[in-house]
Amino acid sequence: MEPRTPTPLDNFLFDLNGYLILRNAVEPALLAELNQAFDNFPALEQGQWWGNAQRRDYNGATGFELHNCIESGEPFEKLIDHPSWINYVRHYCGEEKSYVQGLFIDECIASIRRSGGHHPVHSGGYQGALRGRYLYANELFRCGQVNVITALTDIGPEDGPTMVIPGSHKSNFPHPNMGNYANLDRMDQLEGAIPVLLNKGDAVLFVDGLMHGGGSRTSLEGERRVTIYRYGVSWGSSRYGYEYSPALLNRLTPERRKILQPIAPNRPPNA
Fold this sequence. Notes:
271 residues; Jelly Rolls; four-stranded antiparallel β-sheet
């Protein structure tokens, strides 16, 4: 695929809304490889490791979540610098024109959600963490983290779509209804939240400071399958302390290795 580059309209809408939908982001052959990899996941229990990947569901409602999924096979490695979005994340959170220009993937997840599952609302500009902060200054984007969620299955209204509150990455006030709902703040009930409907192969890219979550999956058929790659500044660190294995780093292209390990370990000789 030819690399995509953010357009002036992309920049306008990303600044305004905090997210972009990238249609037909992943090619059919890679989608097939990824779905085959999902089919081959073992039946892991919460906390159980599979090589250097670990099942670590955020809570009981979010479904099967395999963290450090880049370690789970070549199809996941191909997403590291996928041409549909790599120039976008470099532009929005890669600290362009600075001495620390570059990227780091601090979290990567393969997610399967079945009927009844959802992800509670989180983030927002009000009292938000610096890690997910949205900033544009001096004609440069300086976002702390930008996420790419890729749909491996069609995600319609009943499939538990990602939901966002457009513009909330700049909010100076808390949402007045946050915490007033049962069921861990389901976004389906939150005023201002809209679903991001994706076809198989589409991706949604957004600044982590945007209020977001996963809508309730009411469909009784199939599964909601997505990958979640969180890109951040080159000097960042893994959220949960995961490390990429030497075997993975050694087989990657130099460009991909630079994203997973932007700063190589500095050790004394023979250490």
